[in-house]
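Customer escalation, tier 2.

The customer says the design service returned an amino acid string that "doesn't look like it belongs to this structure." They asked us to rerun it and document both sides in this ticket. The original structure tokens are below, unchanged.
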């Protein structure tokens, strides 16, 4: 799945909680964040609505996870592949939603005193 990876010195658990709260503030439906969790799913829209309305109502389902390394931690947002039915316009809307979410996560990390060492789209 395509997505974006952020590298930060902020610890992984704090980064995941910030990402979860940020997605919640932006109106995403979220899977619960249990003790020791390192991932959650953020969804917006309806799969049925996307099927019926195509590009007018794209369905966003983003997997957000964390990883820890000795020199940094990563927060990864993986985008869903909305399929052929929504076309280029719908795909652009899904990409824009992902970009808005990742920008809001970056802002939340920076407000918490963290810094983004690297941003990489894949």
């Amino acid at each position: 799945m395509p997505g974006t990876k952020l590298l930060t010195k902020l610890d992984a658990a704090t980064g995941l909680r910030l990402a979860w709260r940020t997605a919640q503030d932006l109106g995403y439906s979220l899977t619960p964040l249990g003790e020791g969790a390192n991932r959650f799913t953020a969804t917006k829209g309806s799969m049925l609505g996307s099927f019926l309305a195509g590009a007018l109502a794209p369905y966003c389902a983003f997997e957000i996870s964390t990883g820890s390394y000795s020199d940094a931690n990563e927060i990864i947002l993986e985008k869903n592949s909305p399929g052929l039915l929504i076309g280029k316009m719908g795909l652009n809307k899904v990409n824009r939603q992902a970009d808005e979410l990742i920008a809001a996560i970056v802002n939340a990390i920076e407000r918490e005193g963290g810094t983004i060492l690297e941003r990489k789209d894949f």
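Tier 2 assessment: The sequence is consistent with the input. The radius of gyration is 15 Å. Residues 7 and 74 are 4 Å apart (CA to CA). Sent an explanation to the customer and offered a walkthrough call.
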